[in-house]
Each structure stands twice: as structure tokens, then as C-alpha cells.
Fold this protein.
Amino acid sequence: MDLEQIYREESARILATLIRLLGDFDLAEEVMQEAFAVALQQWPGEGVPANPRTWLVSTARHKALDLLRRRTRFETKQEELQKLAELREHLCELEDGPQEEQEDVMISGALQNGGLQSDDRLRLIFTCCHPALRTEAQVALTLRTLGGLTTEEIAKAFLTPVPTMAQRLVRAKQKIRDARIPYRVPPRTELAERLSAVMLVVYLVFNEGYNAASGDAVVRGELCTEAIRLGRLLCELLPREPEARGLLALMLLHDSRRDARISASGETVLLEEQDRSKWHQGKMAEGLALVESALREAPPGPYSVQAAIAAVHARAENASTTDWPQIAGLYDVLFRLQPSPVVELNRAVAVAMAHGPAVGLRLLDELEERGELRGYYLLPAARADLLRRLQRWPDAAKAYRQALVEVSNEAERRYLNRRLAEVEAKIGSLGFSR
Amino acid sequence: MQYLLLIYGNENHFDKMSPAEIGTIHQEYMTFSKSIATSGHMRGGNQLDRISKATTVRMREGKRLVTDGPFAETKEQLGGYYLVEAKDLDEALALAARIPSARWGSIEVRPIIQHDMPS
């Protein structure tokens, strides 16, 4: 019996169910921890119960009743006493209630709601990602409740002081309680909009791990792993949503390149220079299969298109055989779905690869003129790269310097410094003046 | 649970409109108010006069300070409110979204803390 494994696999679901039963995040967590403590004591001697999850929820519920009884003794406010009494009655009913009701609650039987399962984790994830909460609070609460990360781990991952992160979580839970954010899967009419908020949170977690400005590499890797886990959960809970598959595919394909991205000297290795033998074949295969599955259900959403782009890279045996025109075309599609300057930037780079640096440079110059990406180092970095390919050394040097002003990621900084040095060497050797 | 739906909008929004256009908006408000009264959500509501009629009072160190104007000079001003009964935040948000001013202004949705107030 491995209680730790059971905790890893089941705690999110147990917590989600308890939150629904008790209507309180902190109470749910408290009694869940107590239930696991009891399991730790009893199971080695008595054996693991036939359905550990049911046992744990049931035990937690008993603990909650004890707690509520104690609180009632000290509560004086009429309204609070009323709430406690209602909750205790509700919990007692569940205990005596028909077994099927409990089964429905705890085992993911399909509630015939357009295929959505009545899994409490789905309720939990939509509640954590409610638009009434700030995005950073959504991210923190999702990682805390569904990811099972501690407050300290989340704080470390986002380079935030622990008290700040703790306060963020407290406030979010208070808002859920006091503004009465409902604990439910949104109705069909709101589902699309709410789902994109959930996927954004998962994607933000992944990006934080993947593109981290600085910090512990191990922690970064864990964030990516956690995001992928959440992505898998979304696919499991929402089997009819192709974008969930698209998102998971995108993350897996990026993650498959993790070991090839940073050189031994801690410098970013660009995609075209990566040692493809270091790409994780298993993740890549899974990602590719998911993309195909997602794209089969037209029309594709933005995550699926981004995953398709990643798939084109993944399928290329080496940089020179990459189908850049296809990538450029996919960016056209993406731009129509998400007309953002960042997408335009990526598209310009793809166009440069497909049709030559001069064409791409014209697009980048237009972007720069519009000024929307001011302060975003990847724009001058991309310009610098194309200028370098065109052998316009002084202009390239200027652009690299501009990028260096704006870059915050250490690995990227090293890469840019190296390129700048190369370009400056060219200038020197040709007798250009600065 | 009760929520206050605070209606913010730029007062000058109406200055540019013809009487007929203003009449249409009044009608929309009437329709909305009747609708939420029928559905049992309405607990109260009013349009507020312009901020040029507002006065702010503060007590500081025992002294009363009275100033002309609203609490804060902002681009959008408090123009009205609805007090509603709703079962949760989502229901309150859905009501707020139906308020005509939501289309050009902002509706703040605030939970009400219940106290036993004398009637």
C-alpha cells in the first residue's frame, strides 16, 4: 500500500468533492488532511479499504461534523449558527442517504449534460478560474487545489514572497465565499468563454515553467509537468473539447524539446541549432497524435493551431527540412483567430525563413513602427537575426544591443551577447567604424 | 443573498443624445426594472442626480469637512443603482449585464453584508 501514491492520484478529487459538500475550501483541506492522517494510522494494520476514495471522503465528512459541533459551541452570531446547523444537517443526510447518491457524487458517472462528467474536479477548476478573480489568483488557486502544490512551492515558482502568495490565496478564497461564487460547471451558454479562461491559466503555468525569467531549473520543470497534468485532466474531463487536446499537444511538443533548449554553458539554443536526438520521442509522439485528433474537428482553435505549428517543427528531421511555408500559412490562420502583435512577430519570422530575410525584415520594421511591442525584446532580437543574415553588421549590432536592454531571461541574454560579439567582430575585421 | 449593482457611466454620454434617444433608454430601464421585479430579484433602485449636485462630507479630528462634488473625480460617475436578491454571484452578474448602461459604462457588483437593520 502506498498512501503517498494514493494522495498524489486522489487528493485533488477528494478535495474537490469535500469543497462541494462543505462549501468551504479551508475546512475541506483541513478535514482531508485529518482523514489521510487517520488512514496512515489505520490502513497498515487493517488493510487498504476496497474503495479508498470513498473511505477518505467519508472519514473527512465525520471529521467535519466534529469540527462543526465544536464551532457551534463557541459561535454566538445567529446567522453563523444557522449556517452551521444547516451544514451539519446536510452532512448527516448524506450519511444516511441512499448509497447511489454517494456513488454519483464520488465516482465520475456521466451526468447527461452534453457529455460533461459530474466530476467535482471540473467544478473546482471552473471555480478557481472564475473571471471575478484576478488571473494571478486563478493561477495560484488552481495550483494549490488541483495541483496540490504548497503555498511555498507556488511562491518559489513565481518568484513571489511567500506571505504575498499566501495573502493572494486567502483573498481569493474569501472572495469565493463572500461574493458567493458558485461551485459549479458553467451552463452551456457560458462554457466556451469560461473554458478559455481555464485553458489560459494552464497555459500560463506552462509558460512560467518554460520561459522562466530566472530561478531554479528544477522548479521550472515541475511547473511544466504540473501544467501538463492539468492539461491531461482537462482532456479527461472534457472529451468533446478539441481545444483541450490542442493545448495538451502544444505543451507536450514544447516540453519534448526541454533537454535540448539550454546548452551546457547555460545559453539558449535556438530551435534550428538544437540537437534533435535530445528531443523526447515519447512526448513528441503523444503530442503529434493529439494534434491530429484535435484538428480533425474543424474549425481549429488557437491552441490547436499553435500545436500544429509545433508539430511541423517536430516532424522535420532537421532545421533545413522544416516546412516553413506551411508554418507561415498556419500563422496566417492563427492571426485570424488571435490578431495580436506577438503572433504577427512570429509570423514574420516564419515568412523570413520561407521567403528570405528581406521580406521578413520589412514585416518586422512595420511592426516596430506601430510601437505595440515596445519593450518586448523578441522584436529587436528577431530584427537583429535577420539583419545578421543579410550581413548588415552595424544595424544588426544596434538591434542586438536594443534586445539586450530589454531581455530578462539569463539564458537568452547569453545567447544575444554571443551574437553581438560575433557581429562586432565582423565590424572590427572589416574596418567599419561604430 | 443581496447585491448592490452600482451603475457607473460618463454623465456626458446623454448630453450628446436627442430626446428621442434618451426616451428609448428610459424605456429600456423601465422594461428591465419591471422584468426583475416580476422575477423577484428587485429590492430597490434609483437614478442619481448629476455629480454637479453632489456634496462630500468627511469628519477628520472632530471637524466636519464639506466639499463640493463627488468623492472622486473620475471619467465615469455613479449614476444609479439596483439592489437585488440573487442566489449567487453568477446570477447577480447576469442581472448586471442586462442593465442598459452596461453597454457604455461599468456596473460594479458588491455583495451586501447582512445586518439586522431597524425598519
